[in-house]
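Fig. S4 source data, part A: sequence.
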Amino acid sequence: MFIIAKKVAYQSIDELQTILSQEVFGDRQDSKKAAGRALGTFIETIEFYLLRQWGENDSIAIERPLAEYGREEITHNVEFTLHPTHSSRSAFEIPKDIPTTARKVAEKAQLPSTFTLTTNKVVNKGIIQNACVIGSDEHSIAVAAPDRITSSGTTLHTYILDKHAYAMIECKRVGKEGDAKGPQTIEKAKQGAYVAKTTSSLQKVRNDKGGLDGIYYIDGKAFVGPYAQLLNEIIFRGEPQQLRNFTLSIGVVSNHGNWFTAGNQNKEMKVLAQSYDWLLFLTDEGLAEFIIDLLRSPQPKYKAVRNAFIASYPPSGVPKVDNAFTKKKMDQAAHFALDDYFAANIGRIENWFNVISPNGGTLQDLKEILQTLKNKDWRTIL
């Protein structure tokens, strides 16, 4: 049983991981690792609901394959991608307590017959599938997203997104045991760095001064210049040929003893900082506030979040249930409680993050960049 403790201003992540391992995962063979995996889920959850508050709800896809530039047969699944929205279907309501399949939603949304439908369940037994893909064709994906709960059911919107992603977001966290560094820390850093460097037409090149140049091609002709300068040019003044295969890369890392801080970077952090266009650092303080506010001592209006988390990890001997607390699947009531929490606390939540790279960048700058990319006339670009 997860004990509700008196709310404190701050507890270290080590302390909170220990509490989780004892109170939620105490009957697991390796309770500390199980609690560590839960912390990783929290980071992804924070990022997803932050993107929703930033107005990206109609652009988000989850765990979609992202192709390498120039080698489309090589793809990598990333946590989140943001896509141009080609059209939005009017909201419609689905009945309460009735499993809602992709096919049912496609019929109500009058999805074009050219789309191949998935077998996904958009809502089932009180669990929603976030950014649920209901179908796709050669160039587009159709996604369903919950809008609100009513007394008789759930209201959904559907969106037609282009398969091209104008931005990708990956979340990286490696825990530690005591003072020992996680053995896969550098491997996770290198994996993230590889994907960040290979999935956009604007490529990074190290110059002889140790700095980063950028290179991109138009009709076989190479254009080279300082990377930061080219990045801004493409985002804010880019011509269609510059934007066509461009994907902004964003990394989100957490500390917990391995990534250190913005002012005290180890090798892994430096590898990621030079690979992603933007690297955000979720502080221990921010992650602790999320856990305390929503899982240890939530206000009554947010208790659905705690309930969904606890229900997803029943003790040994109790039949397993569908996990209703992940970035992809979330209890309905918890989903809307999380939306409310992020809307009410967005200023404080944004302060949970430090910007590691680019130097001098702010979260407000990143929001402006994402909004600029979102508002491009992608039909003329793609």
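Fig. S4 source data, part B ends here. The mean pLDDT is 86.
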